[in-house]
Task: structure prediction
Amino acid sequence: MKYKLSAIIKKDLKKVLSSKTMFISLLAVPLALTVLLPTIFILTQYFLPQENDEFVKLLELLPLSELTGSLQENITKLILNYALPVFFLLIPIMASTIMSAASFVGEKEKQTLETLLYCPLSLKQLFQAKTAASFLLSMSVSGISFLVMLIVLETEIYCTAGIFILPGIQWLLVMLLLAPSLSVIAITLMVRISAKAQSVEDAQQGAVFLVLPIIFLCISQFAGLFLINAWILLGLGILSAVLAFLLFRRAAANFTYETLNALI
Result:
C-alpha cells in the first residue's frame, strides 16, 4: 500500500517538475525573495547609508540587549532576523498552492481524473497522497531557498562588513513551525478551490488571498507599527498549526466522490 501511495506522490512531483511553466513559477518567487531582495537590502545599507532611515526607525523597536554592534551590524541583524523571515513565509504558500492547484484541476484538464479513481486506493488514501506531494514539494523548496539565502547573505555580509551573522531563533520558528503550518493551510484550501476552478490558472488566481495576511505583516513592520519578533512568530505559529490541523481534518472529511464529480 505504501508503494501505491508513493507512486501517486512521485507522479505528481514529476508532473510539476517536468512542466516548464510550473517549474519557472517555483523558481521565480524564491529567487526574488532569497537572492534579489536580501541583496538589495544588504548592499543598500552598505553603499547608500543615507537610505537607512526606515531601518534606523525599526532599530528603536529592538531591545537594547540586541543592539550590541555598530549601526551597520545592527541593521544587518535587523534585516536577517526580523525583516526577511516575514517575506520568506510567501515561499511555502506559493510552492504549495502551485502544486495543490495542479493536483486535481490538472487531472481534469488532462482528462485523467476518472482513471485516477480506478486506482486501488481509497479516497482517503488518495487525498493523503495528493496532499503529501504538495507538502513535500513546498518544504523542499522552502528548505533549499533558506540554504541559498543563507549562503548568499553570509557571503555578502562578509564581503561588505567582514563579519558573519548567524540566523536567530526566528528562523527556527519559521522553518519548523510556521512554514509547515502555512503549507498545510494553503494545500487544504486549494483542494476546495480546485473543486470549483475550471483550470490550473483559475485555481492559482483564487489562492491570491492567501498571501494577503503576509503582505499586511510586511507593510505593518516597515511602517513601524510593530516588529515581528520571536514571540509574535511563536504565537502565529501555534495559531497556524491549530488552524492547519482543523482545516486538514475538515478537508479530508469533505473529500468525497461528490467533490470529485464537480471536477469531472
